[in-house]
Amino acid sequence: MAGRFQSLAGRLLVSHPLQRDEHFQETVVLLHAHDRVDGAMGVILNRPYGRTLGQAQPALTGTPLARLPLHFGGPVAADRLAFGGWRFAARGPAALRYGISREEAETLAGDPAFRLFGFVGYAGWDAGQLENELRLNAWITCRFDRVCARLEGEACWKALLLKHRPDLRLAADSPEDPRLN
Hints:
- This protein is an alpha+beta fold and about 180 residues long.
- About 20% of the residues lie in helices and about 35% in strands.
């Protein structure tokens, strides 16, 4: 009998330290959608480009989107930009949004309570693919909360990994090529 399906939408995937896929090595993925029929979709949170949308597209200088940070969202549709982000209510989980229109993104860019980003590409899994990767321990799942939302860049992956799987510290601290140790 197959196990009962449980959606992971709104949760984080933290890559296992032994994950060697160049797209997902040392990444944290925020899942926006996950269901049994369509699979899963999310964006990599800890791969900032170190540029704003205005720097990448000078025509947007002077618009509300000019200061928007750009992130590598994943290997799928890597030639497309999508707006996404979140807002935390006084209590409970974050309200996640992805695929926001440009007009709404311009409005949200002025809302200090909403964390808005430009994601280039996204991460996607076919139906059953993510569940298989989870069975193979390729990912550690954890809640997306206010503390996680404040973590950025490379430190984000390691902090979440060590918080949820401290037993993996040695693997996390090991060099990619053990001969360099």
